[in-house]
Design brief:
Blueprint (H helix, E strand, L loop, with lengths): L1 E5 L8 E15 L2 E15 L6 H7 L3 H4 L14 E15 L5 E18 L6 E20 L2 E18 L2 E18 L1 H7 L1
Antiparallel strand pairs: 1-2, 2-3, 3-4, 4-5, 5-6, 6-7, 7-8
């Protein structure tokens, strides 16, 4: 568990970031290992947009000097913030189903939420983007005498919801792929005999 934070220098430049990373490994046998992991992030960040130099020239006799004074210089967005939350789960199995073989199989789920808000300035902004991803990955290897076989596959589904002042939008994407590789090792095996 870690926490990073930064206090304001100029208006609305504060930052708070919490992170949690945990992993649990279970050795079921010499040929089967299971790993579960969880990663969490929560951040709150001020997005001030920098110093508003046009406004500073109206209120200061010496704007070039006051530009570097955090208590004097106005910022473009005094209340705009970005809050982000992430949850990442993963379960991975590494196994040796039979002699001369290896199996690596993972499933995962990822959730992300980004909330941009600015309620007190001249323009009201509210934008929330939510992502949900889940999928699986497979890597299987088998070697037998003169032949090796490898199979790779993955699947991923992504769902995105965006809500803002101008309306809502939703999208969904689904992908999968599979590949295989067969190798013949005639020369290598004959030299070892």
């Amino acid at each position: 568990v870690t926490n990073r934070s930064k206090d304001e220098t100029y208006v609305n430049t504060d930052l708070s970031l919490w992170q949690v990373n945990t992993k649990l490994k279970y050795f079921l046998s010499n040929s089967i290992n299971i790993t579960g992991s969880y990663y969490f992030v929560s951040s709150k960040q001020g997005l001030n947009g920098g110093v508003d130099y046009d406004s500073l020239t109206k209120i200061s006799d010496n704007p070039a000097s006051d530009l570097y004074e955090p208590f004097v210089a106005p910022v473009v967005y005094p209340s705009r913030t970005l809050d982000a939350t992430q949850h990442n789960f993963r379960l991975r199995t590494m196994a040796k189903p039979f002699d001369d073989s290896r199996l690596d199989f993972s499933v995962y789920y990822r959730y992300g939420l980004d909330e941009l808000s600015d309620f007190q300035d001249s323009v009201t902004i509210n934008r929330d983007e939510k992502n949900k991803k889940y999928g699986a990955f497979l890597n299987f290897y088998y070697g037998f005498d003169y032949i090796t076989l490898q199979v790779l596959g993955d699947y991923q589904k992504i769902k995105t919801d965006v809500h803002n002042n101008y309306g809502d939008s939703n999208s969904e994407d689904e992908r999968y792929s599979i590949a295989g590789l067969i190798s013949l090792h005639t020369l290598d095996k004959s030299l070892k005999l």
